[in-house]
Amino acid sequence: MLVILGASGDLARRKLVPSMYEMARRGLLPKQTVILGVSRTEKSDEQWRAELKPWVADHAVDFDEAAWNDLAQRIHYHAGDAAASAVYPSLEQRLGALAQQHGTRGNLLFYLSVAPELYEPIVSRIDEAGLVTEGRRWCSVDPSSRSWQRIIVEKPFGSDDESAASLNRALGRVFDEEAIYRIDHYLGKEVVQGLLALRFANAVFEPVWNQQYIDHVQISASETVGVGQRTAFYDSTGAIRDMIQSHLLQILAFVAMEPPTTFNAVHIRSEKVKVVDAIEPPPIDRLAEFGALGQYGADAKEPPYHESKGVPAGSTTETFAAMKVVFDNWRWSRTPFYLRTGKKMAAKRTEVVIQFRHPPANLFRDVAPVPPEANRMIIEIAPRERFRLRFVGKVPGQGIRLAPIEMTMDYQEQFDEEPIEAYGPLIIDAMRGDQSLYKHRLEVEGAWRCVMPFLGDSSKPLRRGIHANYAPGSWGPASADALLARDGRVWHNPTPTPSPAPRSPAPTP
Ligand code: BG6
Q: Is the CB of 223 inside a 6 Å radius of any atom of ligand 1?
């Protein structure tokens, strides 16, 4: 049974229930799965189902009334405050009654979809109510019980290194690490998982996947939308916490990790922990050489971020962040990774750019210039899902002219699969007990350590002059360009795929 705590929230109706419907429609949701929403507002099962239906229909790739009706009769609602003890006796009864009604074994997958400050109190209440009977370190497991209890925890997972460690301790007092699922929806994205296949199912890329052949790596997640109605959440969060600490460092780990011994959760996650641990902290007195922060200015429709409704006057919360990550390990010691993310940027695009080094000798130096933007692999994660390998080729015709050319693998063209919302497969993984695409306690704590130097209030030098320092629709503040320029590099700002260079005119006989 999936127990969504915080069922009236946006996440439940926009993502969780629609993704469960999608999985059910495709026949991928176990038939006996029951969904129980828990939230404070009083409403009946029928009312909640009626509320959810338009959201599901809106988000569905293909809305099938029969598939919805079939799932809807397994969707239930229980009113109560999950952070207070009072609701637990009736909740426990309800869980038992639903298990009986639907003939389930009574497995419980809690989904914490509430405000982060409620995570710890709710976990304690679940514990006090005795709902966790298996997966507790100090409890002997009742051999007659075949059911399990697990918990999915949404981001933000803490707001700094200390709060994340405290949350990990609180969860660890109730659930084993094997029962804790720290979700990051970027790990549900097809191409992020595809990175592991690209790297480790082929022999051709791995030999060059290191500091000897890769000059640098860029990981960008740009969005065209602003903060919108989420100012209260966003202003206390900012781009570093919202995107870099979680999503971008997860992508980085998949790009940079060593090959795991086998493709299982224990091995994959321990390699991710190691690579995040190998990130060198930036020297605190030279932070401007390692990071750039920005805030969008006004556009035709909205004021600048710092004057937006709901944003405290003078706020220095960043809506853009760029960071240079340096490793102290054998594979990457000379190869910086540049991360960047922002709201109201020129394009919605999540991608990884692997920039290979130039060949050791330039054979063509007296003949033709070598296009600098080649020798590059562009891994597009969203909105298109593509691998593009851009290299230098000779333009057909007499004499030597060089041009960048591309080989592209587009997932949709190649596999003809409907795209699937990341949450669905991830939740099913948690039901199956597969943690490969969930974050380990140590990964989360390591990621916090990497970003801590860049957090802080307006007294931080990086936040000086942040107000409206980039125009909506641009690629971010000038300081982000300077971050790369200092190293003699430039950001890969998506441009249309280069068209083939024209052939040289045929030689006259
Ligand atoms: C969320 C952030 O985790 O990811 C949002 O809180 C952001 O601010 C979103 O917009 C981006 O996700 P996606 O899948 O659209 O790239």
A: yes
pTM: 0.93
Q: So what's the architecture of 2-154 in CATH?
A: 3-Layer(aba) Sandwich (3.40)
Whether 187-421+442-485 and 2-154 are alike in CATH topology: the answer is no
Q: For 101-117, give the DSSP string.
A: HHT----EEEEE-S-GG
Q: Which residues are known to be catalytic?
A: 247
Pocket test for ligand 1, best of 153, 192, 247, 380 (most atoms within 8 A of CB): 247
CA 173 to ligand 1 center in whole angstroms: 30
Query: What residue ranges do the domains of the chain occupy?
Result: 2-154, 187-421+442-485
Name, in order, each residue with C-beta under 8 angstroms of 294's C-beta and a sequence gap of 6 or more: 318, 319, 320, 321, 342, 466, 469, 470, 476, 477, 479, 480
Ligand 1 in reach of 385 Cβ (< 6 A)? no
pLDDT per position in the chain (509 positions), as tens? Answer: 999 999 999 999 999 999 999 999 999 999 999 999 999 999 999 999 999 999 999 988 889 999 999 999 999 999 999 999 999 999 999 999 999 999 998 899 999 999 999 999 999 999 999 999 865 433 444 445 568 999 999 999 999 999 999 999 999 999 999 999 999 999 999 999 999 999 999 999 999 999 999 999 999 999 999 998 889 899 999 999 999 999 999 999 999 999 999 999 999 999 999 999 999 999 999 999 999 999 999 999 999 999 999 999 999 999 999 999 999 999 999 999 999 999 999 999 999 999 999 998 989 989 888 888 889 999 999 999 999 999 999 999 999 999 999 999 999 999 988 878 899 999 999 999 999 999 999 999 999 999 999 998 888 889 999 999 999 999 999 999 999 999 999 999 976 544 444 444 444 44
Is the domain spanning 187-421+442-485 CATH 3.30.360.10? The answer is: yes
Residue of the CA atom closest to atom 10 of ligand 1: 223
429 lines ligand 1 (CB under 6 A): no
Return the best residue to mutate from 187, 189, 223, 231 for the ligand 1 pocket (most ligand atoms within 8 A of CB): 223
In the 3-class helix/strand/coil scheme, how is 316-377 assigned residue by residue?
Answer: CCCCEEEEEECECCCCCCCCCEEEEEECCECCCEEEEEEEECCCCCCCCCCCCCCCCCCCEE
CA 100 to chain centre: 37
At 182, which helix (H) or strand (E)? strand 180-182
Residue nearest to atom 2 of ligand 1 (CA): 242
User: Assign residue 399 a region: left if phi > 0, alpha if psi is -120 to 50, beta otherwise?
Assistant: left
Q: What is the Å distance from ligand 1's center to 184 Cα?
A: 10
Q: Does the beta carbon of 242 lie inside 6 Å of ligand 1? A: yes
Ligand 1 centroid, distance to 380 Cα (angstroms): 16
CA of 415 to the centre of ligand 1 (A): 26
Testing ligand 1's pocket by substitution, the residue of 185, 192, 423 carrying the most ligand atoms inside 8 A of its CB is 185
